[in-house]
Amino acid sequence: MARPREFDRDEALDKATRLFWAKGYHDSSIRDVVAATGVNQYGLYAAFDDKHGLYLSALDRYGEMVTREVLGVLRRPGPLRDVLRATYEALMGYIARSGGKVGCMMCNAAVELAPHDADAAARVQAHMKRMTAAFAARLTTAQQDGDLDPAADVRALAEFLTATAYTLGVLARSGQSRAYLIRHVETALTVVA
After folding, report:
1. Cβ–Cβ contacts within 10 Å for residue 192, how many?
2. pLDDT for 126-162, tens place per residue?
């Protein structure tokens, strides 16, 4: 008979997510994960199979959080530029809240693992598709409301806005200032209006 789990899986996953977000996959040893979560290696492996399984679960958790907290801003009413600016402000707050130069965990995964890890690449691609779909939905609404040129290519703009979001994550990770990020956003917004 299996022993009952003696830790909160969600709490351990949240702590592991913060660790992987800050240090990446390769720079987070299993000892680091054990120290961050307070769960021994065997407990983690029983719940997540291995370090890679835990990392993929952490990517999923991060993707859910970003989708809920940041992309939810896109559903707010208001002029398109204001809503887009608020969305990027929420994203900048999100990537800054984690304490320093950690940037976006999906961006980090795209650079660190996706080129040679099909599972990580699939999660990054799925996240980008969710973001692009959310931007496209908001742009379509703006077109219907007369707040975006009817001839605008919604798909191309949505892909551009997603790429801008990912660029913010990379810029934050590289240590660029908030003022620099804001200038980047303001320049990007000139494309839509």
Report:
1. 18
2. 999 999 999 999 999 999 999 999 999 999 999 999 9
> In sequence order, which residues have a C-beta less than 8 Å from that of residue 20 and are 6 or more positions away?
28, 55, 58, 59, 105
Q: Which fold has domain 70-189?
A: Tetracycline Repressor; domain 2 (1.10.357)
To the nearest 10°, the Cα dihedral for 131, 159, 167, 127?
Answer: 30
Please write down the long-range contacts of 70-77, taking CB distance under 8 Å and 24 or more positions apart.
Answer: 70/94, 71/130, 71/131, 71/134, 74/134, 74/135, 74/137, 74/138, 75/138
- Encoded tokens for 113: 């693992």
CATH 1.10.357.10 region(s) of the chain?
70-189
pTM recorded for the entire structure: 0.89
Ranges in the chain annotated CATH 1.10.10.60: 8-58
Alpha carbon distances (Å) from 101 to 92, 123, 137, 181 = 11, 22, 31, 13
Planar angle of CA 86, 74, 188, nearest 5 degrees: 55
What is the CATH class of 8-58? mainly alpha
Of 137, 152, 151, the C-alpha closest to 84 is 137
Q: Give the Cβ contact number of residue 116 at 10 Å.
A: 8
Structure tokens given for 165: 């979001």
